[in-house]
Amino acid sequence: MKKILLWLGIVVALLANEDIILFSTAASVTPQKIEETFHKAGYNIQQNRDMNGPFLKQFKQSDFAIYNLMTIYYPKIAMAMVLKDPDSGIFAPYSVVIYKKKGSHKTYVGVLSAKAKAKILGSKAPKKLLKEQEALDIATIKKALPKAQKEELPYHPQKVKEPLLSKYSFEVDPDEALDTKDEVEMVIEDGLKPIGFVMANFNDFAYDLKEAGIKDFIFYDTYSLCKLKVIYTVARIRPEAGVFAPCTLAIYQKKGDDHMHIVFPNIYNWIATLNLKDKKAIVELKKAQKDMEAVIKNALP
Predict the structure, then answer these.
(1) Angle, to 10 degrees, between the axis of helix 52-59 and the axis of helix 228-235?
(2) Residues of the chain with pLDDT > 70: what percent?
(3) Nearest-angstrom CA–CA distance, 214 and 206
(4) Number of domains in the chain
(5) Sheet holding 165-171, edge to edge
(6) Of 14, 125, 257, 296, which sits most exposed with the smallest number of CB within 10 A?
(7) How far is 300 from 294, CA to CA, in rounded Å?
(8) CATH of the domain at 289
(9) Could you tell me where the DSSP H helices lie in the chain?
(10) What pTM was estimated for this model as a whole?
(11) What is the span of the domain harbouring residue 176?
């Protein structure tokens, strides 16, 4: 019996998904209480959006009693990260998923791990700061969930050939950066609704940087973007998919740099980390990626 249990333990460890940190509780807890805990811990809460209303309105049903997408960031760590790697503003904010299936007694809270974020950012990823953020995330989730239990997802991420980060860089005279930024953002914003995307939040991240005395950037804007059909379709298969939604698109230009940059985590993160095989879900994801790329390319000067 001991050998069987040991073997099962090894199998679970091999299958465990290290890209997603997931905790659960059987105790009574609300998304609002979870938000309060994160706020008290020093996080900036951008949104804590109940998705059940939109699910029911558009698709006439929901598999969940609770499905919230909370976008957050911890200013001190986020600012330190963009100084190490400017692209890491794609996690200012990042997403926390809160869900409870209909008929279940468990509430789940999930977030991307430092390992997953580092894979997205690539070789320049500020790994030490990402680990610091992960430790704070875990401590805060445990504080938010009475009798929190660590959950192990029963699948391993699959490998993908495609880059996990979509990035566009184009030449812009620093003296014209703010005007160009306004024009580019206007075209992107106008292009979102026709392709089914919602701008869940806009964050002038440069404000945090300036308040902290950091003057490395001409501007730094982030958009929290969500396509309802994508999260609805994928969450029915993998509820933990909310760790990717909304997705943050960052637009920035550093002082002394004659290039503006647009960057966001792409849909191949969903396919890989969630080990998606469902053809319908993959079609929806790839369409969202293609549509977003078209909007951005249309906005480029």
Answers:
(1) 100
(2) 95
(3) 9
(4) 1
(5) 165-171, 259-265, 247-254, 217-227, 197-204
(6) 14
(7) 10
(8) 3.30.310.70
(9) 2-15, 31-40, 52-59, 75-84, 114-121, 127-144, 177-192, 205-211, 228-235, 268-273, 279-299
(10) 0.93
(11) 16-154+164-299
60 assigned to some structural domain = yes
DSSP string, 222-288: EEEEEEHHHHHHHHTT-GGGGGG-SEEEEEEEETT-SEEEEEEE-THHHHHHTT---HHHHHHHHHH
Write out pLDDT tens, residues 109-147.
999 999 999 999 999 999 999 999 999 999 999 999 999
The verdict on residue 28 lying in a domain is yes
Residue 33 falls inside a structural domain: yes
Answer whether residue 11 is part of any domain. Answer: no
pLDDT at residue 15, rounded to an integer: 55
CA distances to 9, 177, 286 from 267, rounded to whole Å, are 31, 29, 7
Alpha carbon distance, N-terminus to C-terminus of the chain: 67
